[in-house]
Amino acid sequence: MKMKKAIPTGLTFVLAAGLLAACGGGSGNSETQASPSASPSKSAEASPSQAAEELGGKLKVLTHRTDLLNDGTLDRYAEKFKEKYPKAEIEYEAMTNYAQDIKVRLTTGEAGDVNMLDASLPNSELANYYEPLPDELTQDMYFADLKAHEGKRYGLATGVNTQGIIYNKTAFAQAGVDKAPTTLDEFYAAAQKLEDAGIIPLYMNYGAQWPIGSWAEGSVKYVAGDMLYFDQFVTKDEVFAIDGPWGQLMNIARKFVQEGWVEKDLATNNWEMSKGEVASGKAAMYFLGNWAIPQVIGAGAASEDIGFFPFPYDNSGKLNAPLGPDYFIGVSKNSKNKELAFKYIEFFVKESGYVGSNGFMPVDKNAVPEVPQLAEFKSHNPNFLEEVAGDPKFNEIANKAEIDFFGGKYIQELIVAKDLQAAYDALNKKWAAARKALGY
What we know:
This protein has helices at residues 9-17, 66-70, 73-84, 98-108, 126-129, 135-138, 169-175, 184-196, 220-224, 245-258, 271-280, 293-298, 338-350, 354-357, 372-379, 393-401, 409-416, 420-438; strands at 56-63, 87-94, 114-116, 148-149, 152-153, 156-157, 160-161, 163-168, 200-202, 283-289, 306-310, 320-325, 328-331, 383-386. By secondary structure, the chain is α/β, with parallel strands linked by helices. The strands form 4 sheets. A 5-stranded mixed sheet has the order 2-1-3-13-6, covered by helices on one side. The protein is 37% helix and 14% strand. The chain has 2 domains: 9-30 and 49-160 and 324-379, 3-Layer(aba) Sandwich (D-Maltodextrin-Binding Protein, domain 2); 163-323, Periplasmic binding protein-like II (D-Maltodextrin-Binding Protein, domain 2, 3-Layer(aba) Sandwich).
């Protein structure tokens, strides 16, 4: 998956899918691969038998979006939902430490009627806390099987993220960069022109840690061209290699730092400030997910001044880009009003406006993106690779090895390491020891 202090929902792109997304967070999630041939069964509770005017009652919705509660956005969603279901009442509760607090709420049975799924919950445990979704809710939806177990689906993604370079068009023009780079050499040339013009080429947010996941596990799979790339390391001792996608990405990051093409103050967490820097054109680029686009615009940029293009990680001109989910939303097993709850999650994902206003691609495969920057991104014709559930043992080994994937601390060390090979050797040693300890 941004926002109140801007919790990065791009972060949840990472957590929920084990990919990037966004960014930071770091608790590994254990998901089982849903069988593509499994046919989800309908919940007995889910028959759309009642007319809209008859459905009613109170729903409690738990959310990570404290910012949207504070600014009245969620209240507007509730009013819009009530126009469809006049007898419905929605109560929102936003939690500042949602990723941890939802774990407690699930175990105590106080998870409301609707909530954002615990990203680290194994798929095999979903049925303990969530109600299976009706078939019609998941038709033509991205990531329908990412939160599935034994033929039943338990969550809808609340947005679709991709990842690339967010840029300020005015800054590019001032530096004489006349088009979005499509190759690595062009990317480097643009960075140098921006530096020469007195503009920070790329705000890396090294000090914030979580954004720099883009230079490592947040991008490795699509750069490798294999969204199950991590699965091979469950049975191997060497995860990190300079002559593979890990090294390819890290060497690009290291060059940006070595050339001075990033913020001068690396140590400080300047995440909030950086949005204003990119919005004003003092800095030109971010390497993040599309979820960050509304935040840059919210920091003062005109929408038409902000663009988005695929990350040019090589000189082929043929680039992959990921598709990953933001938080999943589901219906609590303990809800006393499941039918209305199903209607709410359908409304939230398809009709509330949440997807477009937060810079996401639509979850519904038949819908057209509302965000103009996504149209620009797609005009470069990237090869989109959709996130799939990988082997949960990868995260288990990572946790045992105490490598903070999606946290960023180890990436900080790699970016400034004097000897990248030696740093990778040390990480591989930790990985091998963890595999051995776990019996893999």
